[in-house]
Amino acid sequence: MEERDFKQLLTFDASFLLAAHEMKTPLSIIRQLSLTLNDPQIDLTKTETERILRQIDLTSERALRLVNDLTKVARLEDAMFELEPVNTRKICFDIVEEMKNLYGVHGREIIFKNRKKASLVVANYDLLRSILLNLSDNALAASDKNSKVELDFSEKADKVRIMVRNYGDELPLKIWRNIKKAHAKNSLKPVSAASRPQSSGLGIYIAQNFALEMNGKIGVIKHRDGNTFYVELNRSEQLSLL
Amino acid sequence: MRRKVLVVEDNLFLAENFSRILRSEFEVATSESADLAIKIIDEFKPDIILLDILLDGYSGFSLLNEINSHYDIMNISVVICSDLTDGLDADSLEKYGVRAILDKSKATPADILRTIKEVE
Questions:
Q1: Nearest by CB: A32 against B12, B14, B24
Q2: Which of B71, B39, B104, B115 is nearest to A26 (CA)?
Q3: A26–chain B nearest CA distance, Å
Q4: What is the pTM of this model?
Q5: Which residues on chain B place their C-beta less than 8 Å from a C-beta of chain A?
Q6: In angstroms, rounded to a whole number, what is the distance separating the alpha carbons of residues B109 and B47?
Q7: Region A68-96: what's the mean pLDDT?
Q8: What would the pLDDT profile of B23-44 be if each residue is shown by its tens digit?
Q9: Cα–chain center distance at B24
Q10: Which residues in chain B are closer than 8 Å to A142, comparing Cβ atoms?
Q11: ipTM score for this prediction
């Protein structure tokens, strides 16, 4: 085996390990919940049974989303992800619609600060959707109970930022530095985004790869009462009637 | 009087589920973080803590250290229930009150209930 192939294999191994860690959590949850449903010793009301089934459903969707994203990351170099004008207002509404059930069962809410004027960005809809789902997923984990996560966008010169703001603990300095460092280097390696291995920044890694594919970037702004993660993309000059 | 169990687990679905598994035999409270657990320990005064290690924010080990450094709560028994149990040394954790270690990805609801019941 050539040295180059061997090095590539090592990189793949590290990625597989990381992905395996990320997958272990949802699989453990699904297993525990299924076993509970099937355990005759545990008395469950009809409402509880329905809630468990909903939790299994949401956890499976989350795991499948991760697998789909990882597949896309692996295909980024080979596959052509066509860039086209994407309406920021519409995609924000779509994300809120897609995430509201998951937020609901966690006692949180995700909202879109509905702007009257939409922006158009040069993006691939599927990749941008994946980025925003990953950022919203991170925001859910980092937000205080009963708090809202807000989606918003802003324009500056020829760039558009789509932002996901959460209210909760500020990002630990070490993690923030890691993200900034990775961002500065345009690194394509996972960054540590939490103290726990199963939240080892794979979502950020996926988002970063997808953003670069669309000539954009991701970033984070620290607040004293939370964080804003954003994706910045080129504004589309195409005339919009929306 | 029923014994009290504090479940420290940052995944809401699992925390709820552990509570369902234990409620027939124990009085159960849950905490999603090590920070919050300290406050709940003061008020709820648990006999046993079912502890996840990989938590958002401070880890389960930080909580073990904190518990061990306070005379009035250092005797609370702890059962670790984590996805990463391979590297854990039961002998060295015993002095921190850890009575058992459960692998979250392998333990069944019956295992969890039995283990907690066996803790003195």
A1: B14
A2: B104
A3: 10
A4: 0.78
A5: 11-14, 16-17, 20-21, 24, 32, 54-59, 83-84, 104-105, 108-110, 113
A6: 20
A7: 88
A8: 999 999 999 989 999 999 999 9
A9: 17
A10: 56
A11: 0.91
